[in-house]
Amino acid sequence: MNVDIIFAPASTQVEPAREATKTIPIVFAQHADPVGTGHVASLAHPGGNITGVSMVLTELAAKGLEILKQAVPSATRFGVLWNPTTPSHVKVVDAIEVAGKGLGVQLLMTPVRAVEDFDGAFSTMRRERADGFLVPPSPLTNSRPIPLAELGLKYRLPGMFGNKDNVTAGGLMSYGADFNYMYRHAAIYIDKILKGEKPSDLPVEQASKYDLVLNLKTARALDLDLPPTLLARADEVIE
Angle, nearest 10°, between helix axes 89-103 and 57-71? Predict the structure, then answer.
């Protein structure tokens, strides 16, 4: 159709867009690792037809695991719901494994490729005696916050997410960038490109603010007493 621009929010959508064209500008809004996936040459100089707003998911996911351990200090094993179809998750899993060793916890890597995999993943985590779970954000898990929150409560497992929407839906906690902020700034990139600027000349912007959100109602439902130090650190507490 020879469109003027392609908006591809995350690495999952950027990859097929990149394969389809090397000339039509592509803008992303929540890319986890544009350099690591090879979608841009560098943050300062993207160099091709792709640019946008990024979050440092490899570091965020590792930090999320650390905060989850603080919330459940007695935990020795955590499940990780990662998505093999999300290009950035390969490096994210590596970072989480390094973080797990540093925290002295075992990790149960549990792949989920579709909503239909959710229940089986939670059944596996329960059977393997996981003490909680970590969900690195992906388009799949971002778009299905309610089923994930319900399964966390059903299987009585505290969960750490990368998207506040998962906590609003009933998940226990999240640590991540402000998605609304990132999408608004992606619109600025689109505006500049439509006015004549080149993606290769527009540096990738990294989200600068990361929020810790806790759901106390869910904590009570799980009979989990969150440490006062964690509550004091929270940017938002949902009662």
Answer: 40
**In this model, does residue 50 exceed pLDDT 90?**
yes
- Determine the pLDDT at residue 18: 97
The Cα–Cα gap between 190 and 51 comes to: 10
Which single residue is written with the structure tokens 């929270």? 234
- What is the distance between the alpha carbons of residues 29 and 8, in angstroms, rounded to a whole number? 7
Q: What is the pLDDT of residue 60?
A: 87
The per-residue b/e assignment along 85-110, b for 16 or more CB within 10 angstroms, e otherwise, is: ebbbbebbbebbeebbeebebebbeb
Instruction: Check pLDDT > 90 for residue 161.
Output: yes
Listed in sequence order, the residues at least 6 apart from 209 whose beta carbon sits closer than 8 Å to its beta carbon are 177, 178, 181
- Which domains are assigned to the chain? 6-56+178-208 (3.40.50.2300), 57-176+211-238 (3.40.50.2300)
Sheet holding 50-54, edge to edge: 6-7, 26-31, 50-54, 205-206
Element spanning 119, H or E: helix 118-127
Is 161 in a helix, a strand, or coil? strand
Q: Could you give the CA distance from residue 177 to residue 224 in angstroms, rounded to a whole number?
A: 25
Single out the residue of 207, 224, 229 nearest to residue 29, CA to CA. Answer: 207
